Amino acid sequence: MVNILYGLLSGLLAIAVPLVKKVLLALGIGAVTYSGLYYLINQLTNLFQQQLAGMPVDALAILGMMKIDIAFTMIISAITAKAILSGWSKSNDQKTSSYSHL
């Protein structure tokens, strides 16, 4: 009875330990990527606001009519979407490549 329990427990540990390691690694990489992307977007937004702060009012009115703020938002959204899709496709590639030996 003890041998069966020992075999079952060691089998579960053999499965659980690599799984936990992969999950923790993925969470760590995701957190670093998220932090870096968040920092980049904040820096771009602050730079854009600083550049606009020194402009004359007439130039700001023209830029407002040209909807420059919306264009900047679209660019930031595109950068974010590209990063998300790139990460998504890399995680899918990683899943499929790990089973390529089967």
Distance between the termini: 34 Å
Enumerate how many helices there are, as a single number: 3
Instruction: Tell the overall outline.
Output: rod-shaped
Q: Helix proportion of residues, in percent? A: over 70%
Mean pLDDT: 79
Low-confidence stretches: none
Q: Taking Cα atoms only, what radius of gyration do you get, to the nearest Å?
A: 24 Å
Structure described in brief:
This protein has 102 residues and is an all-alpha fold. The chain is built from 3 helices and no strands. It starts with a helix and ends with a helix.
Tags for this model:
102 residues, mainly alpha, 3 helices, 90% helix, rod-shaped
What does the secondary structure layout of this molecule look like, with pairings?
Elements: H1 2-53, H2 57-65, H3 68-98
